[in-house]
Write a structure and sequence with these properties.
The structure is a homodimer. Chain A is α+β, with helices and mostly antiparallel strands. Helices cover 27% and strands 27% of the residues of chain A. The first copy, chain A, contains 5 helices and 10 strands; from the N terminus they run ββββαβββαβααββα. In chain A, the strands form 2 sheets. In chain A, strands 1, 2, 3, 4, 5, 6 and 7 form a 7-stranded mixed sheet that branches. In chain A, β1 and β2 form a beta hairpin. Chains A and B meet through β5 of A and β5 of B. The structure holds a DNA duplex.
Amino acid sequence: MNLKQSIKIAVDAIVFGYSNHCLNVLLIKQKFGALKNQWALVGGFVKDNESLYDAVNRELHEETGIKVNYLEQLYTFGDNIERDPRCRVVSVAYFALVNSTELILHADSDAEDAQWFPIQELPNLAFDHKEIVQMALKRLQSKLIYQPIGFDLLPNEFLFSELENLYCSILEKEIDRRNFRKKILSFGIVEETDKYGDKKNGRPAKLFVFNKLKYNKLLNEGFLFEINFA
Amino acid sequence: MNLKQSIKIAVDAIVFGYSNHCLNVLLIKQKFGALKNQWALVGGFVKDNESLYDAVNRELHEETGIKVNYLEQLYTFGDNIERDPRCRVVSVAYFALVNSTELILHADSDAEDAQWFPIQELPNLAFDHKEIVQMALKRLQSKLIYQPIGFDLLPNEFLFSELENLYCSILEKEIDRRNFRKKILSFGIVEETDKYGDKKNGRPAKLFVFNKLKYNKLLNEGFLFEINFA
DNA sequence: ACAAAAGTGTTAATCTTACACCCATGT
DNA sequence: ACATGGGTGTAAGATTAACACTTTTGT
């Protein structure tokens, strides 16, 4: 096929983590080129013999060494022809979540300067990456409501108050503690363990786990997860 | 930038239309190449100086002459490296709806054989287009529930029974006629006109219109459209 | 008068919201 | 004993689900 086309394909990943009651985004500092020292999303060009999915996983591994818990395609950015000043680049953006026990960055050759930034305190970003982050945040907010992906941001065993806080802070609204717990427990997909969290003060709090198998079973039976409070 | 990459970028459009109580997909018959005479989605390669959005609109215009009522990006297919036997192609798929008064095809030079197929009676499709159609159908089904896009498949003025039928047939379930009408009317975004539809038999039925301006105004005030019946 | 589709209301059941006090621990 | 966060129940209001008869027209 002798079509002349000189558009490059890249992948970018918006990786969200949750720590200190705060949603974080993983960024890396550009080491080369005109955009040297600017912060950008994890990403890079797709190789000829590599699927998009493999490409984004490779970049995640090379640039951060992190293990993501959830990964899905977000959107393909290709309407702004000059989004990359170097040449025409169409970027397939992915949306990733990491478990908060996996937040440690194994900095690697390609980008020693991977770093977490609270979503409220992002630096200036290269390219159109600000826009990509905005879209990813919206996706996260709407997914939280009808899919149990909040658990992918927490450790395997978590406190109910952590889950509650995660919902409140990402959705930016107050949720009644009692109604929230009642609703979540009514689904039967979150189970109490007999362990207690390390706490500073106050009454000790039980640890809970998300039963993914049970959720998948219920899903097949037509169950709909939904956390939607006024 | 001297990266060697030989991946092509294409766009494809899944165009849905609704007629005869039946959801239809627009396909074109391939005229050249190894896949000659196979049916495929509307689509083609993106030009270097053209946005993805412009590319899909150009292809729609060139290949079918149709005017779409709704267009949004669906998903980017690039995981199967051999999805196109000719070379590595990553395709950005778009999801489109056409008003049922616009179903007439202005067949054009590039593909005289554009044709509507009921979703239940699709022929064999080229590439991975079957998979793309499946994903588009799922998207349509879920969007119908929480966005008023059903109206983009109907004429400007429509009968309540048409709307109801559209929901039932696309979602593949029975919906109580009284509850459906009550719910839709309670939103205040569908208005009765003083006209009546052409009917064969039975009591004459009023025509209704969707008030998009009012919907947009309500949206800004936090209104949530939702049609979700057991 | 009948066939065919349009139009319309009520009730029981369920779900959602709002709200405040006691509990278990560390200091 | 007190400060801190954890844990729990109930009642009013809103929403949903289930359900059948009358109306208007053409033949």
